[in-house]
Amino acid sequence: MKKLLIIIMLCAPFMMHAQEQDYKERFEQLGTMLPTPNSYRTASGAPGEDYWQQKADYSIKVKLDESSNKVTGSETVTYYNQSPHPLNYLWLQLDQNMRAEGSDSELISTATFFNDTIPGKYLEQYVANGGNSYDFPGGFNIQSVKNANGEAMDYLIQKTMMKIRLPQALKPGENISFSVEWNYFVNDRMKGGGRSGYEFFEKDGNALYTIAQFYPRMAVYNDVEGWQNKQFIGSGEFALTFGDYDVEITVPDDFIVGATGMVQNAKEVLTKDQFKRYEKALKSTEQTFIVTEEEAIENEKEKSNKYETWKFKAENVRDFGFAASRKFIWDGQMVELETKKPFAQSFYPKEGNPLWEKESTKAVKNTLELYSKRTFDYPYPQATSVHAASIGMEYPMICFNFGRPDENGEYSVRTQLGMTYVIVHEVGHNYFPMIVNSDERQWAWMDEGLNSFLESNVMFEYYPDLPYNDNIPQAVTGYMKSSKDAQRAIMTNPEQVLRLGPNAYSKPAAALNLLRNTIMGPELFDESFKAYAQRWMFKHPTPADFFRTMEDASAVDLDWFWRGWFYTTDHVDVSVDEVKYFRIAQDESDMEKNAKAPKGDLGEKEEKEMKTDFSEGPDYITISETPSFWYGEYRNKVDDEAIEARYADKHFYEVTLSNKGGLVTPLIFNIEYKDGTKEEKYIPAEIWRKNEGKTRKMLILDKEVSKIVFDPEGELADTDQTNNVFPKAEGKTKLDEFKEKGE
Predict the structure, then answer these.
(1) How confident is the model at residue 358 (pLDDT cuts 50, 70, 90)?
(2) Coil/strand/helix, residue 124
(3) How many CB atoms within 10 Å of residue 400?
(4) Across the strands, what pairs with 346?
(5) From the CB of residue 286, how many other CB atoms can be counted at a distance below 10 Å?
(6) Beta carbons of 138 and 107 less than 8 angstroms apart
(7) CA angle at 546 for the pair 438 and 487, rounded to the nearest 5°
(8) Is the pTM of this model over 0.90?
(9) Where are the domains of the chain?
């Protein structure tokens, strides 16, 4: 029998690389795209031996005037210069100034008449004044800035920032104390939106206040940006300095207040029975009502003209927020973690029931449990969920969340789902960025994306019966294959992002779910993710610190992954172009069946049409006697006949694939055999390293194949599953079913 040597398959990868015309180097190391490591931030992604950060302590007294919806406050700030640099001035954030007349957020707002009939609310809120509407006198009124001796200090207000000019430089290791007095009007969120403000209930004439960004706050000064004094114009959230807070909040004496930190005078501001319930709740793993619905309803009936002061203390937090209303029901329970026992609690009006008393505190508990398992035990003494209409916003130890039944107290599964996942998400923000303190003004995905990823993990583990399908690869395919004119890379500043939801939340979360569940595996990913969280808790990480830590702790080269998913708008669309079937020829009759041997290469024009099914059966190849030049200097030889015998019963399937979307990806094949059995094959993304546009994979199998499907479950975020199946036009994939259900 004449032997035919098949060399072309061995050489094909190199020939493909040489012939590829659009080589974009997606496997190039990030290299100079990341900042150079130094003694502050190491190449491993960990803080260096010279890492430093500033500290700012606050003593705040604030009064909420219900009749005028006005906040009046004073603060003493003690700022510690722990940097190696002398500072000639300090920068503070005045975020309420985004609502001032003539602010940048007003001037740069854009809107359109989407129809010839529009709602009045749309006209006033979005068209007329860019959110600073309904003749609202927004913005801080700074009354004074004084030093520790009570002397006026020189300051400059630059839009949403305030610069305090120091008479002499604040040297390394020194601290300075100064005081600020201010006031501002609280916005009606229903009319103008906003991350904080009040909601008015017409039926009983009461308001529910969710108050944040209510005081001048120190900006971050660090080794990466210097002063982080980028203006606040709406989308980019906050970069803040850790410190200790003593806060006194004066409100009508029939108000209940929830806030960052622990209340210090609960016995004074609660009734005797409420205080007993509060002390019981702090120690009990069972839900306990501190203020009952009946008490809250009774409290709504008359408005007190008297005021009282609630006192709170919080240590090592980056911000402070509070909520206040006479409408609040209050319940809570202790959560048992491995090393901590924080208090989970909820504040909500009767309009939130029966949903909120059933689900809110439980969701807080579930979040603390899973996030602690994946990162570190929740270090703060409490975590609070507050119900307010149409909002989801977070602050240390407290968050404001939507999800309201109708007026009859009935609610749909959709309402329950929305309310549950927003609580999980906002409570989860305690970890990212309240503790792992990334810069939200620059990198929205570092808190929103990481947090949305863990949110999805809580939902899948604790709420399998709710129809939650967010933040997974299947859910972002529509966005990723949309017009590139409508997208920006994840690494884009949030103010320049076109669609913040998919860009900062769902796409990075989907990427991390893909990384955990498919590429790295849960054990290795969780260990690496925990290393990042624990390295940077109570510190200021950057994207490079995250990228480097994930690789450093796993020994997995992920530069291709960060480059593709985070720095580009490429998407996954892999086409299974052809599958060729081969067997080893056993005799002359096999060769006669094989009319012509396989020819050509991916870079050459094939002499025959691409195969679309397995109907022609296998092509046959023969094993030749290995020529002497294959051995080089070796003096021994392989046994060609033994090799032929070893592969005689094998089935060879050469799968040809095209990368149409540009985003390199691992390969997952579901292989169905003629005997009805199935098998899954996983191939790392590095298979594209020599040619990012086309590749081949030879599958050597024990049985004859009837069908091969790429990405059968949609877990790789492939955007076009119609070209994933061979033989062609073979049935629906899981992603097809996912899309048809509208999930």
Answers:
(1) very high
(2) helix
(3) 30
(4) 331, 385
(5) 8
(6) no
(7) 75
(8) yes
(9) 8-26+571-740, 259-427
